[in-house]
Specification:
Elements (H helix, E strand, L loop, with lengths): L1 H21 L5 H4 L71 H12 L48 H7 L29 E12 L2 E9 L3 E3 L26 E6 L2 E3 L13 E7 L8 H17 L10 E12 L11 E9 L4 E9 L22 E5 L6 E3 L16 E3 L2 E2 L1 E5 L5 E2 L11 E2 L1 E3 L2 E3 L5 E5 L9 E5 L2 E4 L1 E4 L2 E5 L7 E9 L6 E8 L8 E3 L12 E5 L11 E10 L6 E13 L3 E4 L16 E8 L13 E3 L3 E2 L1 H12 L3 H13 L16 H5 L5 E3 L17 E7 L10 E5 L4 E2 L30 H16 L6 H10 L12 E6 L3 E3 L5 E3 L4 E8 L7 E8 L11 E9 L6 E5 L10 E5 L2 E3 L8 E4 L2 E4 L9 E6 L4 E7 L2 E8 L7 E2 L28 H7 L27 H4 L12 H4 L5 H11 L3 H10 L2 H22 L14 E3 L9 E6 L3 E4 L3 E3 L15 E4 H41 L14 H4 L26 E5 L13 E3 L9 E2 L33 H9 L9 H5 ...
Parallel strand pairs: 16-25, 18-25
Antiparallel strand pairs: 1-2, 2-3, 3-4, 4-10, 5-7, 6-7, 7-8, 8-9, 9-14, 10-11, 12-13, 14-15, 17-19, 19-23, 20-21, 20-24, 22-23, 24-25, 26-27, 27-30, 28-29, 28-31, 31-32, 31-33, 34-35, 35-36, 36-37, 38-39, 38-51, 39-40, 41-42, 41-52, 42-43, 43-44, 44-45, 45-46, 47-48, 48-49, 49-50, 50-51, ...
Helix pairs in contact: 6-7, 7-9, 7-10, 9-10, 14-15, 15-16
């Protein structure tokens, strides 16, 4: 080992001596120095190596050892072996081309000539530890002064760096710089830069973003900076940037690593590094595809130095790298001996053409000031030190690296910074803003800037925040303060600490502070909290299965590098839920989905694996998936883990079986009903919500109240998961006083969708997604409260049930019904554009070319205040000189107590990435991240459209409904203000008083109306416009300027009341006669727009004229749209359990209805929206759907009602008429009796009752049949009331007829069951009076009647029944059987009771009856049929001796030749 080391020393000394004698690249100052060639070596005669004895050994600070860093490329030991170029060896003193001599032989020859070592033919330096390629270049020497021989290569299969080699090249502070190359050139050395020419132009041929601007060139200066524009003619110390009186004086754009006047110094011949003093410049381009060794090593080294050194650069890959080195430069103005007092420093610029990083390496600093800045001529001390920092130029902004720049501690730069662990290395991000990437221990103040990344994170926590600011000590505790939560930091290195963001109940920009040790929180910044619904999506769902009630599987994906670059790391997937059951929000752990999964970036969840779970907190209905590292040490070797969160998801896929066991199969209904019950107890929230616009076009241009809804955005998210068939939704930009949010969705026809029409309609929300202060209370938490009260029930009530279910319709119609647009009022609009032209709220156009800051519009109301101000600067010169006109360059606005928002036009070459600058309370904000497109501040929301990436359109929404829209195109701005109707007659300023009266538009600050001619620009300028100019002081009724003051520029810097613009309107009036072409061109470009013609005539800029016309047309179209009266018929209720076939509610719309299956449509089947904004009056009643069973019941009730209401009154009338008639007849004739017509229907019921149970007689004392007597009719007895046509099949029950004529009573009701001879049988015995007597009591007798022997016990009775007289065809029965026929119609009269019955007699009485009772006793004197023939003692039944039977109610009278008189008739009641 010692032998190898001695050989290395020998070779180094030999090479140094050769370089000292043969170098052709020395400067003129070094050529005359005799010490340069006096290299002193002491060589032993017999030694095989050279021993170097240096006189002076320069001490250097040793760099710290870096840990092994895995490169991004594959680890291998192979190298490229280019063979196409024959290049001189890297160690040759005088390179030359030798035909036939290889590189290996040249190296051997050189070593032998130098006498350093005697080598054999087969020598190999690799065994000495050298990395020498086949072309002879020594890659192991990191300070090799000779540039590598290989050229840039982009072929596949090139060099792949190893981890060991990467660690080796990163162990040196300074990057490569070479003073020669293998072709005999000067390498990176810039010999053209010297005292007489201090700068050199360099073309980059790529885009270099710097401080908001973009450049494709640079100028390398001897004075310690890279510049992009000319410096001022003279410098005043201390240097102050930007130059305040720009553009009168040049304001340079530069990157200053040591901005001070320098000259090339000298080195001692004994210095170890003998590279030539001066300025070096090396440019490596297109590193992304480079495969040659040097290109790969430059890319990998730069990439890892920046990734580890600057927070937020974890994904940066350099595309181009600039290495500028100032080696041994001295200060200007010193004596000759001061040339040895030198500084050596290096600047490395890396960019991917979007992000740019700078590395400042300070190797040696011996002087701080030049003589012009007050330094002495010998040591360069005592004056104003060099400036270190960045200046954007063009009078915009700068960044001075404090506390080192222009301070005596500037020499500490070599021992500070600690970038990548190196003292003397300082890192910065410089593309848009200057963000420091190195620690700073030499500064102290109450508010110190803190650098951290990322600057935004999910509200749920888990974001790993890398912090740089103070220099950290592992023995001191670091506390991070996020809003109201504190967490402890984790020490990484002296330059970095990591804090993991906790769960924050907040949104938007919050305070972020850190303290080190016992110090107070003096390092401060602003951290943006993303709401969970709008946060950067880091867990992706392949399908919509997670929203289903019971999916089979759920596929999730994530970027594994968001957790760690270690591909073998294990992760854990867990499930969390949220609820609000107390005043405090509750985010709770539910279950572990997977505990030990390899970080592959994808996983499939099978819900069936969790059906047997029984969680105690199964009342959680929505939540999140969480992914973190199982073993946190796998992430950067620290005991912390980043956390990935999903968007909010319903938990039906996990809890459905538990809910089924708890609530039954209809668990969605149970969950919904519980929510409905709780929601009904809460306050009503829809009263303060703004009404939805009727059409999509109106919603898009209501900038003050509505912004796009990210759940359903036609530009960024057209899926509309919870609003199918919608193409765009808007939501209220700010929460109302109660914290609610309005939502309006529109279909493909641009018509407002309502929940009364469909389940996908617009739904107002009890809680805004942004929450409401204080955010730490239940019902006010951003996103979480919104999901708990508004999103969660949509799943259980509608998405997991039928659309026509009772719960879903309750949710749609009662709890979250859409509000129609009947009362919607479009906002008033005013705008400014061009150079500049105005259109007031009442539509008055005019031109005012004021120079300065003016009030555009302000509220004069004390309770609702707002103010919008504009800044106007002079238009740039054209080819004819100065242009006497102005244009809008900035807007500032503020509500009553809201954050002040400022929107500025960026300079021309700074608009490559962002067209507009947006400042909130003086702090720049950006919208290029998806999660930061919508940013909410105190009382104001600011956003840019999702389809724009260059920040060229900004919309500001205040909580009072005021909106301001700023649009930029090609450097030309327009501003539009949108006001709700609450501000009518409450505005003033250049936009006039909004009163729908153009005559009082030009209101002065004192409230009077200016009397000016609108076509006279001079009158408008002096008598109205200048009255609204802002100043540095508060002017009554005008106010104070709201603009933030950069670089000390106050309102007076921009304002100039003495500026006299052009007051003529038409180009032909103010252009010379010899410029008729310009007049014609204006007419050609602009047509009838005088604003466009004016702008082109003044500026001769076709772009400005084009956008002036475009802005004017857009403003006029918006005003016409908003002023057009919108007629809407409003909500037409959809029938419950039904649907509408179309959802339009504009005039002319015809809506048809249908009902679900099992329902019947009632009312009008179609309605029409009339031109007056009303639905037509229904002809058949309002439309609704009725269940079929209820419909049938209703029809029955209607029928009954008709009967009750129509027939019953008719019957009552008839009865009353009869009664009156009867009373009238009785009054005339008291003996009059009403003749009752026959009634067959009442015969049977009338014959069933005759007498009471205690009296067996059929008549009362007067001989009239008793009313309470029951006539017993068997079902087999025939009654004429049941129809004479089927009398053969009819039988009568037991009936006893009592004759009132005095004859003996006879059994007349029951037909005798007799045999063919006609003998009676089965009859009860008679008493002494001849009345039939029952053997059993009445009820037993009735029971016996039900079990009559004619039915079962004596079936022969059917055979023994006599035939009816009408059907009896035998002659022997003609006389007797007709008299035996048992009738039910009895017309026997008391006057002629002995009359025989003749059934076929033609004579009938007037009542239509027939004689049915023959006057004989054959039915009573016949023996019973059950007495056997030949019996001698047979009891005979005697006929009763009663009066003849008459019946006037339903029974016909006997056939008399002459009808009896009414007075002789008696009524028989049954």
């Amino acid at each position: 080992m010692r032998f190898k080391f001695l050989h290395l020393l020998m070779l180094t000394c030999t090479f140094a001596a050769a370089l000292a004698s043969a170098n052709e690249n020395y400067s003129s100052e070094l050529d005359n120095d005799p010490q340069v060639s006096d290299a002193k070596f002491k060589v032993s005669k017999d030694a095989e190596f050279v021993e170097m004895v240096p006189e002076i050994v320069q001490e250097k600070v040793k760099s710290t050892k870096k840990p092994t860093i895995a490169p991004t490329t594959k680890t291998t030991t192979t190298t490229t072996k280019p063979t196409t170029h024959k290049l001189s060896p890297a160690l040759a003193i005088a390179p030359r081309v030798n035909n036939g001599i290889t590189m290996r032989n040249q190296t051997k020859l050189f070593l032998e000539r130098a006498g350093a070592i005697k080598v054999s033919e087969d020598f190999y330096l690799g065994e000495l530890g050298y990395d020498i390629s086949d072309d002879g270049y020594d890659w192991s020497n990191l300070n090799n002064p000779v540039a590598p021989p290989n050229v840039a290569s982009h072929t596949a299969g090139g060099y792949v760096i190893t981890a060991q080699r990467l660690q080796e090249i990163r162990s040196n502070l300074m990057y490569w710089y070479f003073d020669r190359d293998t072709n005999g050139g000067r390498g990176d050395y810039q010999y053209d830069i010297h005292a007489s020419m201090t700068q050199l132009h360099k073309n980059l041929n790529f885009r270099l973003p710097f401080f908001g601007f973009i450049y494709n060139y640079t100028r390398l200066s001897l004075n310690g900076y890279l510049e992009f524009s000319d410096p001022p003619e003279y410098l005043t110390y201390p240097l102050v940037f930007p130059i305040k009186d720009y553009p009168k004086r040049r304001d340079p754009s530069f990157i200053g690593i040591w901005f001070s006047k320098c000259r090339v110094g000298r080195i001692y011949p004994t210095d170890i590094d003998q590279r030539v003093p001066g300025v070096y410049f090396r440019l490596e381009r297109d590193l992304l595809t480079r495969t040659d060794r040097f290109g790969v090593e430059v890319r990998e080294r730069t990439m890892w130095d920046i990734r580890e050194g600057v927070v937020g650069a974890e994904t940066f890959i350099p595309k181009h790298v600039i290495i500028a080195t100032w080696k041994n430069v001295s200060f200007a103005g010193g004596i000759d001996n001061s040339l040895f007092t030198t500084n050596t420093f290096q600047m490395v610029i890396a960019t991917d053409e979007v992000y740019t990083y700078a590395i400042f390496n300070y190797d040696l600093l011996k002087w701080s000031s030049n003589t012009e800045a007050g330094g002495d001529t010998t040591t360069g001390e005592g004056g104003v030190p060099a400036y270190v920092g960045f200046n954007a130029g063009n009078g915009t902004r700068s960044y001075e690296y404090t506390p080192y720049s222009q301070q005596m501690v500037i020499r500490d730069l070599t021992g500070r910074g600690w970038g990548n662990g190196f003292p003397g290395r300082h890192l910065f991000r410089i593309d848009e803003q200057i963000l420091i990437g190195s620690c700073n221990k030499d500064i102290d103040a109450s508010h110190l800037p803190l650098s951290f990344a990322p600057e935004a994170g999910n509200m749920l926590g888990g974001t790993v925040v890398n912090i740089t600011g103070p220099c950290f000590d592992p023995k001191k505790r670091v506390t991070c303060h996020f809003d109201t939560e504190d967490v402890l930091g984790t020490f990484v290195n002296k330059n970095r600490v990591i804090c993991v963001q906790p769960f924050l109940k907040a949104e938007g920009w919050v305070r972020f502070e850190i303290s080190v040790g016992n110090q107070r929180f003096k390092w401060r910044g602003r951290y943006f909290v993303e709401t969970p619904a709008l946060a950067t999506e880091k867990i992706f769902f392949e399908t919509e299965d997670v929203h289903k009630k019971a999916p089979e599987q759920i596929q999730i994906n994530w970027d594994p590098y968001n957790l760690t670059s270690n591909g073998n790391a294990n992760i854990m997937i867990s499930l969390w839920g949220y609820r609000e059951v107390t005043i405090y929000p509750q985010l709770e752990y539910i279950d572990t989905i997977e505990a030990g999964l390899t970080n592959t970036g994808s996983y499939v969840i099978y819900p069936n694996n969790y059906i047997n779970r029984n969680n105690y907190n199964n009342d959680l209905q929505f939540g999140f998936l969480q992914i973190n590292l199982t073993n946190p040490e796998q992430y950067s070797g620290l005991k912390i883990s980043p956390t990935l969160w999903s968007r909010p998801i319903p938990l039906g896929w996990y809890f459905n079986k538990q809910w089924e066991r708890k609530h039954g199969l209809r668990w969605p209904e149970a969950l919904c009903e519980n929510w409905i019950r709780n929601d009904r107890y809460l306050r009503t929230f829809t009263g303060d919500l703004p009404l939805c616009p009727c059409t999509l076009e109106q919603a898009v241009y209501d900038k003050g109240r509505y912004r796009p809804d990210k759940e359903c955005d036609k530009d960024s998210n057209p899926t509309c998961l919870r609003h199918k068939n919608a193409i765009h939704c808007v939501v209220s930009g700010n929460p109302v006083a109660e914290g609610a949010e309005q939502q309006c969705c529109y279909d493909r026809y641009g018509v407002l969708m309502l929940t009364q029409d469909q389940v996908w309609g617009s739904r107002p929300r009890r809680n805004h997604n942004l929450g409401k202060m204080p955010w730490n209370e239940a019902g006010k938490v951003p996103t979480l409260s919104n999901w708990f009260h508004d999103m969660r029930p949509w799943y259980s009530c509608c998405h997991w049930q039928r659309e026509q279910s009772v719960n879903c319709e309750t949710f749609r119609f009662e709890r979250r019904p859409s509000q129609d647009c009947v009362g919607y009022q479009a906002p008033g609009v005013a705008g400014v554009f061009g150079d500049p032209h105005f259109i007031t709220f009442d539509g008055t156009p005019y031109t005012f070319n004021g120079l300065g800051e003016f009030v555009l519009s302000r509220s004069v109301s004390a309770d609702r205040r707002f103010e919008v101000q504009g800044r106007f600067e002079q238009v740039p010169k054209n080819q004819y000189g100065a242009v006497m006109a102005t244009q809008l360059t900035a807007l500032a606005m503020r509500g009553n107590t809201t954050t002040t928002i400022e929107v500025r036009l960026r300079p021309k070459f700074a608009r490559w990435r962002y067209a507009l600058d947006v400042l909130a309370d003086g702090r720049r904000i950006y919208f290029d991240r998806e999660s930061m497109r919508f940013q909410h501040f105190d009382g104001v929301t600011v956003y840019t459209p999702t389809y724009l990436l260059n920040q060229s359109q900004v919309v500001v929404m205040f909580d009072g409904g005021v909106g301001v829209e700023v649009v930029e195109n090609e450097g030309y701005m327009t501003g539009r203000v949108y006001l709700p109707w609450d501000f009518i007659n409450k505005t003033a300023g250049l936009f006039g008083n909004w009163s729908f009266n153009a005559l009082d538009d030009l209101v002065l600050p004192d409230g009077t109306v200016a009397n000016v001619n609108m076509n006279d620009f001079r009158q408008i300028y002096y008598n109205f416009g200048l009255k609204w100019m802002l100043a540095d002081r508060n002017i009554p009724n005008v106010g104070t300027a709201l603009f933030s003051r950069d670089n000390g520029r106050t309102a007076s810097y921009y304002s100039n009341a003495s500026f006299v613009p052009n007051f003529l309107k038409e180009p032909q009036d103010f252009l010379p006669s010899n410029r008729s072409y310009d007049v014609e061109r204006a007419e050609e470009l602009c047509g009838e727009s005088y604003q466009c013609r004016y702008d082109y005539g003044m500026t001769l800029n076709a772009d400005m004229a084009h956008f002036t016309k475009n802005y004017y047309d857009s403003l006029v179209n918006i005003r016409n749209l908003n002023s057009k009266r919108t007629v809407s018929c409003g909500v037409l209720e959809t029938p419950r359990f039904g649907r509408k076939l179309s959802f339009d509610f504009m005039p002319g719309a015809k809506i048809a209805f249908e009902c679900d299956e099992g329902f019947v449509l009632m009312g009008d089947q179609r309605r029409e929206c009339l031109a007056n904004g009303l639905w037509n009056v229904p002809e058949y009643g309002y439309t609704y759907c009725l269940r079929e069973v209820f419909y049938t019941r209703r029809i029955a009730f209607i029928a009954i009602a008709i009967i009750v209401l129509v027939i019953c009154p008719l019957m009552i009338c008839i009865v009353c008429g009869i009664y009156r008639f009867r009373q009238k007849q009785l009054k005339e004739d008291p003996a009059w009796q009403m003749t009752i017509p026959r009634s067959r229907a009442s015969s049977r019921s009338n014959l069933r009752q005759l007498s009471g149970p205690d009296d067996d007689s059929d008549t009362d004392a007067t001989g009239t049949l008793k009313k309470t007597k029951k006539w017993d009719l068997d079902d087999e007895d025939v009654t004429s009331s049941e129809g004479s046509e089927n009398k053969d099949t009819k039988v009568a029950s037991d009936i006893e007829y009592v004759n009132k004529t005095g004859d003996k009573p006879r059994q007349m009701g029951r037909r005798s069951l007799r045999n063919n001879s006609g003998t009676d049988h089965d009859l009860p015995e008679a008493d002494e009076e001849g009345t039939a007597v029952d053997d059993e009591p009445a009820h037993e007798h009735q029971q016996g009647q039900l079990n009559d022997t004619t039915d079962a016990s004596n079936p022969a009775a059917y055979r023994n029944q006599p035939p009816s007289p009408e059907t009896d065809e035998e002659p022997q029965h003609n006389a007797t059987l007709h008299q035996q026929y048992s009738p039910t119609f009895s017309a026997a009269d008391s006057r002629n009771s002995s009359m025989n019955y003749q059934p076929n007699a033609a004579i009938q009485n007037r009542f239509g009856g027939v004689p049915v009772l023959p006057n004989n006793t054959q039915f009573f004197t016949r023996p019973p049929s059950n007495i056997p023939a030949g019996a001698t003692s047979v009891p005979l039944r005697q006929a009763p001796n009663v009066a003849p039977l008459t019946q006037d109610n339903g029974l016909p009278s006997p056939p008399y030749a002459a009808s009896p008189t009414p007075s002789q008739q008696r009524s028989t009641e049954v």
